[in-house]
Design a protein that fits this description.
This protein is globular. It starts with a strand and ends in a 10-residue tail after the last helix. Strands 3-2-7-18-19-20-21 form a seven-stranded mixed sheet, with helices on one face. A four-stranded mixed sheet has the order 5-4-1-6, with no helix packed on it. Strands 8-9-10-12 form a four-stranded parallel sheet, sandwiched between helices. It is 40% helix and 19% strand. It has 494 residues and is of the alpha/beta class. The structure holds zinc ion (ZN).
């Protein structure tokens, strides 16, 4: 078994706001010992020179969408509902090779920016396939990163899910939208069950999850089917809950209670359950999630980019919700920089008002992006900390970078100062995936060539879907803000 001794670095202790000199012994893919400089290492151990660096546990991206990477920069003035309307144009018509490529591109960006594991919700319509899931999984394996791959599934299209929306369209658009139907729920469940049974990739590296995409895009029978599948196979369940105000309003209309309360009734909540966004969660929702040991993936950048608002991370933590931090997909964030998401998580909480006791501390934010993310991904006790028994996913930040001059408080600076530009090396499972700021596993110029070829092909292939988007956008852009401007009050609907 390969043994590596990491010498000369300073190891971040988030809670203590300190980074003291220490050496780390890595045996195989796991940290086996951390001790004072000069720590003994077995004969034959490889030395990794970490002098001049600060070491922290790999950042964990608690929510992204790998298909989004080929669509970065395609839109600007998009609400969530316009983004969903643009889906067939910006994410449709993909080959399996393009699914692989899009995931690989995102993984490369993430590792270069200090992120070592992600909760990825890819899209494949009309239903996920084993081939599509393996293509995404293989991309993470090839880059050397970890991921939970949870395909987004539903049995209603976005247009069917918003009451009254199709009726607000002229007849020819109604017809066009009907063609965007998803596969029957049984097909999606069968395909996911087959993939869960036949998964050949190392589950410590890439494992599957189940993601009923948005509760009201799913019938109750389908939501139950997803929840059962996740429990049967002991994998994560992940859903966009209370992301936009439109979602919150439609949820109340459809269920008479909040989407979270409804999911609770269906038996979907538990420690394996992750809410993506949760901007419009109320106190009762947060209490339910906390009581069930569930997680929220907080995506402050995406929430601002799509006009969804500012999630109350302080209140979530106060109600014992596990919080992870995510970028969301590159089609709405648009980068995959988890340091940026971390910084925004801290700033958004402060931007909500002047009451400092309701702010998220740098310590809480830094724990969320490491330990919180690990728990949401189902890697609690294995990822998120630098300690014996944890996987050796280590980021080495260059202390000679201006971000770290002077070194006043490493926890505060990790959250408020670092932007990814000080990342020098990244180790994942004991293997150097980034060395001297270059990714070691992927030929970037070949990646650029393949990505550009995919962009050109998709531009042509999806031109009709783009034309349809141009016609649908004015209808959705009028209808949905109308919903969002209604007062949000649960008593209206019960
Ligand atoms: Zn999402």
């Amino acid at each position: 078994m390969q043994t590596t001794i990491v010498r000369g670095g300073r190891v971040l202790d988030i809670r203590a706001h300190r980074a003291d000199p220490a050496d780390i012994l890595v045996t195989g893919d796991t940290i086996t010992e951390i001790g004072p400089p000069g720590l003994a290492a077995p004969a034959g151990a490889t030395t990794h020179d970490a002098s001049g660096t600060l070491l922290h546990a790999g950042l964990i991206n608690a929510h992204t969408h790998s298909h989004g990477n080929l669509a970065k920069g395609m839109g600007d003035l998009w609400t969530l509902e316009l983004l969903l309307t643009a889906g067939p144009w910006i994410s449709g018509g993909r080959t399996q090779e393009e699914r692989y490529l899009s995931a690989k591109l995102g993984a490369v960006e993430m590792v270069l920016k200090g992120c070592t594991a992600a909760y990825d919700l890819p899209l494949e319509v009309p239903a996920p396939t084993i081939g599509g899931l393996e293509a995404v999984g293989r991309a993470y394996v090839d880059v050397g990163m970890r991921a939970v791959v949870a395909p987004m599934v539903a049995d209603r299209s976005f247009f069917e899910a918003i009451p009254g929306l199709i009726g607000a369209m002229p007849p020819e658009l109604q017809k066009a939208v009907e063609a965007l139907r998803l596969a029957p729920g049984e097909t999606s469940l069968d395909n996911m069950r087959a993939a869960l049974k036949s998964w050949t990739l190392d589950r410590e590296r890439v494992r599957l999850g189940v993601a009923p995409t948005i509760p009201h895009h799913c019938s109750d029978a389908f939501l139950r089917g997803c929840a059962d599948l996740a429990r049967e196979h002991g994998v994560g369940l992940h859903s966009h809950v209370a992301e936009s105000k439109v979602q919150a309003m439609v949820g109340l209309q459809r269920y008479g209670v909040t989407p979270t309360a409804h999911l609770d009734t269906l038996g979907a909540l538990g420690p394996h359950f992750t809410v993506a966004h949760g901007v419009w969660l109320d106190d009762d929702d947060m209490r339910r999630l906390g009581d069930h040991g569930a997680s929220v993936a907080h995506n402050p950048g995406s929430n601002m980019r799509l006009g969804n608002g500012f999630a109350d991370m302080h209140n979530m933590l106060a109600r014992r919700v596990n919080v992870g931090i995510g970028t969301d997909g590159a089609n709405c964030s648009d980068n995959q920089n988890v340091y940026e998401a971390l910084r925004m998580a801290a700033l958004v909480s402060k931007g909500r008002g002047p009451d400092v006791e309701r702010w998220v501390t740098t310590e809480q934010a830094a724990i969320a992006v490491t330990e919180g993310g690990a728990r949401a991904l189902g890697f609690e006790g294995r990822l998120g900390r630098l300690a014996p028994g944890y996987l050796a996913d280590i980021v080495f930040l260059d202390l000679a970078h201006p971000n770290w001059m002077p070194l006043n408080d490493p926890t505060n600076q990790l959250v408020h100062t670092e932007d990814g530009s000080a990342v020098r090396d990244v180790m994942i499972g004991g293997r150097l995936v980034v060395k001297d700021r270059r990714v070691t596993t992927v030929d970037l110029s070949a990646l650029q060539r393949d990505v550009e070829a995919a962009r050109r092909r998709l531009f042509e292939a999806n031109a009709p879907a783009r034309a349809l988007y141009e016609r649908l956008a004015p209808v959705v852009g009028r209808f949905c803000p109308g919903l969002a401007h209604m007062p949000y009050h649960i008593d209206r609907y019960v």
